[in-house]
């Protein structure tokens, strides 16, 4: 494993230094192993590991390439790890969301367009006042995804998106068991939307914090 780690570090150094750039094809295995002072086996293991986290793209019959290194692509590895969460870690995911999502919502206040705001409002209107819990949770995911995307920060967008999955079950559970959960969620969504229309970043941040914290507080009380 130590030899493989060394091989990974050497390939990473080539990418960080610019010797290998996004989209570049790696030299032949024998040439690269010799140039880096590695065995072909350790190089092969390093390439396999880096392909799993979307740094490298191994194309059968064509060669190995550096990927686009796009943040969304690289953060797929986070989603993979998140899929293995345990139910007792949901509060930790919510705590991280409570840090990141309000910041993204505040950033969106200055950037989100009127058409995007109208689309979000239209989706809330289509839901009506008494949607099913499943409809509300699906809409909630899209509502926040649209706002975070409007922040203009693709890394932040990918992080928040990756962290949303583990909290979905908790939100459905809350909607089924807490009497006013649906009405409260709709009220908070409209408050966030109003703050965004007013270009009030701090109000948008505050309402997003309240929105996530209410789920977190409910979950703490039920565990």
TrEMBL record:
Keywords: DNA-binding, Transcription, Transcription regulation. Residues 1-69 form the HTH gntR-type domain. It comes from the Bacteria. CDD domains: WHTH_GntR (cd07377). The keyword Cell membrane does not apply. SUPFAM superfamilies: GntR ligand-binding domain-like (SSF48008), Winged helix' DNA-binding domain (SSF46785). InterPro entries: GntR_C, TF_FadR/GntR_C, Tscrpt_reg_HTH_GntR, WH-like_DNA-bd_sf, WH_DNA-bd_sf. PANTHER family: GNTR-FAMILY TRANSCRIPTIONAL REGULATOR (PTHR43537:SF43), TRANSCRIPTIONAL REGULATOR, GNTR FAMILY (PTHR43537). This is FadR family transcriptional regulator.
């Amino acid at each position: 494993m130590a030899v493989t780690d060394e091989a990974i570090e050497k390939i990473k150094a080539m990418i960080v230094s610019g010797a290998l750039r996004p989209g570049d094809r790696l030299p032949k295995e024998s040439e690269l192993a010799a140039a880096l002072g590695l065995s072909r086996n350790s190089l092969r293991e390093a390439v396999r590991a880096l392909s799993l986290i979307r740094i490298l793209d191994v194309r059968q019959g064509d060669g190995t390439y550096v990927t686009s290194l796009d943040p969304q692509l690289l953060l797929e590895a986070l989603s993979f790890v998140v899929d293995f969460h345990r139910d007792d870690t949901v509060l930790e995911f919510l705590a991280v969301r409570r840090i990141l999502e309000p910041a993204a919502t505040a950033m969106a206040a200055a950037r989100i367009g009127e058409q995007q705001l109208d689309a979000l409002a239209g989706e809330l209107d289509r839901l009506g006042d008494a949607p099913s819990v499943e409809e509300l949770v699906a809409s909630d995911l899209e509502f926040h995804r649209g706002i975070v995307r409007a922040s203009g920060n693709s890394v932040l967008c990918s992080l928040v998106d990756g962290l949303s999955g583990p909290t979905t079950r908790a939100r459905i559970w809350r909607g089924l068991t807490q009497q006013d959960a649906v009405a409260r969620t709709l009220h908070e969504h409209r408050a966030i939307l109003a703050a965004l229309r007013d270009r009030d970043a701090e109000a948008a941040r505050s309402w997003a914090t309240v929105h996530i914290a209410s789920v977190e507080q409910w979950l703490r009380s039920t565990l």
